[in-house]
Predict the 3D structure of the following.
Amino acid sequence: MNNSIKMIIVLTSIALVSGVVLSGVSNWAAPHIESNRIAETEAAIYLVHNNARSYKKIETEFGKVYKVYDEEGIPIGYSIVSEGNGFQGKIRLMIGVDTALTKITAIEILEQVETPGLGSRITEDEFKNQFRNLSAQPSVNWVKGKTPEKPNEIEAITGATISSKSVCAIINDVLQKARIEKQSNKL
Amino acid sequence: MKKQISYWKEFSKGLWEINPTFKQVLGMCPTLAVTVSAINGVAMALATTFVLIFSSMLISTIRKLVPSQVRIAAYIVIIATFVTIADFVMKAKFPELSKALGPFVPLIVVNCVILGRAEAFASKNNPLRSLLDALGNGTGFLIALTLMGSIRELLGNRTIFGYQLLPESFQPLLIMILPAGAFITLGLMMGLANIYMNKKKKSEIDSVISKYKESKATFEESKA
Amino acid sequence: MSNLENQSVNLIPKLELSSSPHIHSRYTTQQVMWLVNLSLVPVIISAVIFFGLYQLIVIGVSCASAIISEAIVKKIRGAEITIYDGSAFLTGLLLGLIIPPNFSLTATAIGSAFAIIIGKELFGGLGYNIFNPALIGRAFLQAAYPVAMTTWSKPNFAVDTVTSATPLAAFKFDKIVTEIKPLIIGNVGGSIGETSALAIIIGGIFLIGIKIVNWRIPLSMILSLLFFSSIFWFIDPLKYPNPLFHLFSGGFLLGAFFMATDWVTSPYTSTGMWIYGLLISLIIVVIRLFGGLPEGVMYSILIMNAFVPLINKFTHPKIFGEGK
């Protein structure tokens, strides 16, 4: 009996001390972690819109959309966060589009777990730059093994067709949803 | 009561004799998973060492207060506390590194090196010895992970700590930064360590045998 | 102290132990290896015809690297140098035949060295290796150089409609089913020695004829492949390719005659051979139809290699009078 009381006391006090210490550390770290996260998001928002100076966050059914404005406060487009399945796991993208949702300004890969050296090449500039000023009308298409001819085409990475395809699919999917929202004047 | 070994020995045994990776074969999950680059290996080992040192010392300090039935629970709470602290600090101050190590920082809680040292050493020895033991084991872990990270980064990406060491003409072996490469590297490193140990052991046995024969010969000579 | 003396005496083995293959046959291991090498000559000729003389250099580098690695490892281990028994040559030759045409020579040499050092010698050398060394080498190259390993050259007599992609990749990604005739002759994209079904069958039948290769494994693999692929073909002939396409495309025949039949890494009981072949083909069909990769012969054989000791154990014939 005596022993079980001792067990309870010891475990409780260890847990108590641990709780106090952790809440202290958490209080100190929380603002840092939050500011890191915001800085990261902001950097990504501006990365896909070079001329943007400020942004407004819009919560939509399909995720977060950031409406971005230039120096004079005129809306110049949207930065949309979207994710979908790649070859091995989730790919999270920041997609920059113009206000009409017809032209992509740029894209940025936020997270991916594709095969190193193959699918992970979607993070390389050579691939991402193909999306600069790419037409998304009616949708983004990909070609394999040849130079793209149409304004809405990109060339898939050799050996990583599925990852390249996934990026296009994520973009097309989210743009379609965004267009519906746009029609109902929610954006 | 067994003879106490020297403080230096308490520290240095973790480097090689009971090296967590090569000898105890503990903490394999982070060893295999995060060592895609040297810097990841170092960061992981440092975080583990931090937790190891503080939890070992604390556990050693309170070792006489904790009833043996709940000792594992108590150890885990203590270890988890330090891991959470390490995780928060990394997230706040080194967000890039924390992202690279991903879920493996919280998983230090279940790293067998830490619980292993707590159970096998800290719960039976005083705080000073526990500190030295933790430092030694942490350093051993650091050496192993840095070595593995360096080899894999060099062959898989031509670089070590981000500095390019192999020429452009070297085609990087992608397998080295894939999980398969981790197993191959670890296996070969352990194999080499075993070859070295076996040679050492054999030469020790040989020297004992030759000494014995020598003394026998001199003994018989004196008898004659 | 005298214990120590005894211990050192005990280190000397009293019993000669050896691992499979210890099948009694009319050939020595050395003769077998060189006969298998000889049987690959038609395949090499087909490779030269369809992909050019340069492939001889690729194959040569692969063989040379295998032999040199074997010699070096044997020297380090202090074992007898057995490079003339042809087994290292065979590993190099097989590896040279299952990599893409015009493959980088450095990478070929690395893959071949890996096959011998890690795939064979680290397990103890010939007779002790669990996995087929040539396939280990290829699996390594596949993971190390994924882009180069899936970059195919057009065959020499390609008609315009033939792309450089392998027939299996063309099917997987573009739903194009290649006709059977070019598949049999070998005028399609693919690894150096895997495209010509005809050349492989000639070599395979030669090996079966001189009783080096047991006919059960290839036959079991072929029947099983036809059976499982037919099931899917009957379900939906548009979605799944026909069984003959499965049979003659990719590395299936080369695998069935030359890889899966490796003495060391295949079962030694007759029942075991049937089970082994059946399961290899089942895995091949599953990978080809539902996997992320277009081809699965290499992984299927490697997976089943791991099961060989188990198959041997379960199909081991009962000795008369032995208890249950």
Strands of chain B lie at 159-160, 163-164. The CA atoms of residues 14 and 137 of chain B lie 4 Å apart. Chain B touches chain A through 26 residues (CB under 8 Å).
